[in-house]
Amino acid sequence: MSNHVHLRPPDTRAARRRVSLTDRVALRLGLWLILWSRRTRRTPRPRVDPALRVQLEREREQREAAALALMRAWR
User: Fold this and answer.
1) pTM
2) Where are the alpha helices (DSSP H) in 1-75?
3) Closest Cα to residue 58, out of 74, 73, 66, 46?
């Protein structure tokens, strides 16, 4: 079994192209606009009906009680 590690030399044929200043500015400006729009746009939250909230709370309490009953019965 060989312990030698063979590394390939870097590919020197492909010339590294530099990104133009205008492209870099456009990219930064675009990203900044995306972040700004997400930060400043407030989406209105839908109002929750108080009766629906009470019903959902009651259903959650019933599910928790059923789960506790199962845990106690399992012991």
Assistant:
1) 0.38
2) 21-40, 50-74
3) 66
